[in-house]
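Example (one chain per record):
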Amino acid sequence: MKRIGRGVRIGSAGLLISLVLAGCGASKSSNQVKNKVTWMQTSELSSMDVSKMTDMISDTTLNGTNEGLLRMVKGNRLIPGVAKSYHVSKDGLTWTFNLRHSKWSDGTPVTAKDFVYSWRRTVTPKTAGEFAYTFDHIKNAKAINQGKMAPAKLGAIAKSPYKLVVHLTRPQSYFKYLVSQAYFFPQSQAAVKKFGAKYGTTSRDMVYNGPFKLTGWTGTNDTWSLVKNNQYWHKSAVKPDQIKFQVEKDPSTVVNQYQSNKLDVAILSGQQVQQYRHNKQLHIRKNAQMWFMEMNQKKYPFFRNHNIRKAISLSIDRNQFTKKVLQDGSTPSKGFVALGLGSRNGRDFADDAYVKSAVTANSAAAKKLWLKGLKQTGKKTVSFTLLADDTDTGKRSAEFIQSELDKLPGFNVAVENLPFKTRLTRSANGQFQMVLSSWTGDYPDPMTSLSNMTSHSSYNNGKWTNRQYDRLVEAAEGKDANRPQQRWRDMVKAEKVLANDEGIVPLYQAAVPQLVKPGIKGIQFFPESPEWDWSKIYRTK
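Predicted structure:
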């Protein structure tokens, strides 16, 4: 899921929380919403354009306002969404979805053509959709995205208004999970045409087919709300009347807002977690969100040197980073793929693919590799800037990384903290030297992360390339797709290639420490999916 800086792409696979509140309703004035919950976000909402959104905040918001063919819930279960049923051919190449009669928020019907249009729009080169690569298994998708074929040739066909048939070029066991994700949601062609360049940039320039409608978002402000969508096919199951979001970046402000009852859910930072460790309102939720550092290997040949990349990774003490700096329950990463994104024979993928030497600090080895790399690149000193978010966590993280890298002889590191949306844009456009990035998987399979680091992936911002890695991912997605054991081996080998070559610098697997008001009961946390089930959140006191 999504990138965040997946914010909290929350993104895996990330978080799914359903909150059920118990107790008696407090008295409210007539101008107050009956069932209103105020939720905190750590970063701004970036985009509501299904084809262009890339981050966690946008993803989780879209999962409240819109709906795909299926929905993923606890235990990796899939339940009906717009599709009331589906069928897969024996060879795994043809998927048929039978759609229910549902509507957009403007009252027009949601049909199979809306899915076909949406998917075509995403893979069309001029759209520049960063999730276009996730459609690669659909017939002709790759050729369309490369500009070699017309979008009308995509292997997604509206056989009738309420029957969608999808033809794959090769089996993809997790395709059922993909169609539950935001980037596979339908889009109204009429709405895209009506709103033009403004489509998805404000709450008014969008239509919705999910439990809620988005209101109050101008495209640049720090507050927005979800309100009930009366056109939603299952509106009777939607419990809250309104969920209000507000962005808070300053830790002290967050706590003050929570204590003054202006926030029902607050995300803590650093030492605040220790201060509240005995408070029953504190919940630390593991997340399949991985944070890592990317180096721009396309623009800066210096970072193409393996010894340089290795030295940078071995300079960073991840245990000190998580325990002394973050202090929020996050744990040192074992690799790029987070724990919880797949297991075989009782072994988690992250454990099977673990290359300890790639993520364990070793200052002596780091210095030796660094000096060797400097000699190979003809450098004596280098100066680079590290980009990071302007959140409290982003600032503390960048400062720590800076202090670790400054120990390498002749390495001068500056830090630039940017608003989340700006950092995302600059990362995607290659306008960085080094950057702290994150990724939270979208579905419970290692490929949700591994596919990002292929040489052709739009999410490979640093443009690391490795032919062996590409071949292994291609094998797992192609000739070994229906051979589970061999596919697993391909993926494990690919992760180890990435680790040994230090294509990126894995840092830590995130946790989300939250204060939750006593009136919010029955929290269910499970990391198989990145979405929050907003429809089950409601207030009773």
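Caption: The first helix runs from residue 56 to 65.
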